[in-house]
Automatic annotation (TrEMBL):
The keyword Disulfide bond does not apply. Keywords: Cytoplasm, Hydrolase, NAD, One-carbon metabolism. May play a key role in the regulation of the intracellular concentration of adenosylhomocysteine. It is found in: Cytoplasm. It is an enzyme of class 3 (hydrolase). Belongs to the adenosylhomocysteinase family. Binds 1 NAD(+) per subunit. This is Adenosylhomocysteinase. It catalyses: S-adenosyl-L-homocysteine + H2O = L-homocysteine + adenosine. The lineage of its organism: Bacteria, Bacillati, Cyanobacteriota, Cyanophyceae, Pleurocapsales. Substrate binds at T60, D132, E157, K187, D191. InterPro entries: Adenosylhomocyst_ase-like_sf, Adenosylhomocysteinase-like, Ado_hCys_hydrolase_NAD-bd, NAD(P)-bd_dom_sf, S-Ado-L-homoCys_hydrolase_CS. The gene is ahcY. PANTHER family: ADENOSYLHOMOCYSTEINASE. NCBIfam families: ahcY (TIGR00936), PRK05476.2-3 (NF004005). It comes from Stanieria cyanosphaera (strain ATCC 29371 / PCC 7437).
Amino acid sequence: MVAAVTQTKYEVKDLALAPQGKQRIEWAAREMPVIKQIRERFAQEKPLAGIRLVACCHVTTETANLAITLQAGGADALLIASNPLSTQDDVAACLVAEYGIPVYAIKGEDNETYHRHVQIALDHKPNIIIDDGSDVVATLIQERQDQLSDIIGTTEETTTGIVRLQAMFKDGVLTFPAMNVNDAETKHFFDNRYGTGQSTLDGIIRATNVLLAGKTVVVAGYGWCGKGVAMRARGLGSSVIVTEINPVRAIEAAMDGFRVMPMSEAASQGDLFVTVTGNKHVIRPEHFEAMKDGAMVCNSGHFDIEIDLKSLGAKATEVKEVRNFTQQYQMPNGKSIVVLGEGRLVNLAAAEGHPSAVMDMSFANQALACEYLVKNKDSLQPGLHSIPTEVDQEIAALKLAAMGIKIDTLTSEQIEYINSWTVGT
């Protein structure tokens, strides 16, 4: 352990937290059988040997299991935090002390520290970047043009990051392949829906200890994350309103049994507001003005820009901490607005993020996407690439096997039928 520390550069809160972090990493691993099988194969085959890899992720127990898997595959990996409130300090300490992985992450780090860590990550001269939100890739393109020739590719698993990568490619600045992990079926169907759904409400309840039954919950955005939050809030007895800009998703929300209306109408009705859009200023001053006294607002999208907190803070006569991760803004009209987790990802700011069982599939996609980039580095063109269907299917099959679930297989007659156009009804 001492040898690993002396050879490893790092910035973490306290290395003495490492034993606690090790326990928690191992506990998470119990629920991550797919990544375990990939790690065992990686340890034998070393598909990432000689690859310098940077990961900008939430530094959690689940991410630790991914980092250990990448290291087992031969990668020279360095890890930084993608969000200042999502770092688990004991986990960061353990990765340094037990595994010799350079980690630059401290819970509560300020923006200046975060951006400095992004620069440290790029100083590692990565060949592959695992990015949550695409800040590292954006900084590389804007400030480190001389390093672009070193890049094999990047992987991205957040909706926000995919939107940014699409904009980069449209502008002609994304000159290397990017694996769209977010749109893999074994990622967004499960991580976004079940992971975000459960962990968001977990963060809200830990921060406030409020009873959600009987409350009106407004969910901004009905993508896979919004669907999960709305589903779980209804399951706990809440009356759920959905706001949307996409007419197809709005129809879907209505047919799923939720009330659908603009935020301008929902603002006066909600007791709790959850933003999951990936866009900017979804809740604005006019919405705050219309809210009930004591209304609670939080965000479960990647960046802390979905709620216009700057405007709220400028208008407030007083801001005070009323519980951990819970701030009350006193307004001139006598009402108060309660903000959870500083408007950052509430599931990671006030809780522990997604359960490890669902991150097992997401991080299996990340690990296999890195392997895919290396194996196909001479043929992949710049731009966004989907996770191959066979990889998605492999991950799902491994997960089912680990859960003890068996499914049917096609008979030879059925295979012939679905591949033929001559056989009708």
